[in-house]
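Protein record
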Amino acid sequence: MEKEINKTPDQDTRSRQQELRADMIEAIAQTMDLYGVNHSFGQLYGVMYFEDRPMTLEEMKNDMNMSKSNMSYAVRSLMDSRMINKLDEKRDRKDQYQAETDYFRTFQNFFGTRLQREIDVMTASMNEVIPELSEIILSRHTTTEERDSCLRDLHKLQHAQQYYEWLQHFVNELQAGTYFPASGQDE
């Protein structure tokens, strides 16, 4: 028969708080997974989100039980999305990282970065393709069937250009904080 350990009310509260944190960390990871972020990277962000202090790679590795290489990749990925930041000051000669805890700012950083990347990729491709399509359309050696097909493609790309101009405006406004309450940006 197992001996029951008597817990104080304070220990019960802390234990329940840890359970509730674990539930929220899992919810954060599932949410980030919806947006294409690796589930364990989402868990790492969740762990860091609830930390009241910066963490080193070693502390993260131990908390997450991840290999050093996976942890480094996760940290780089989260830094690229500006969901975590590397601090200037070191602790015991080790780099320290801290999660961005302002949800308005994480939204702004995460989606702004990803949408800007999409805009850059698509705009660069369209800027290369549209002039060549135009040359094919204007060439006297192009058959009527080929010209019509190129015109259809050109019209689709011109419509896409309008979308990406609108999206660029949206990203600029997003990065400027236009869509957020004033309190979300000042913390």
The chain has a mean pLDDT of 91. The chain is about 70% helix and 5% strand. Residues 104-185 form one domain.
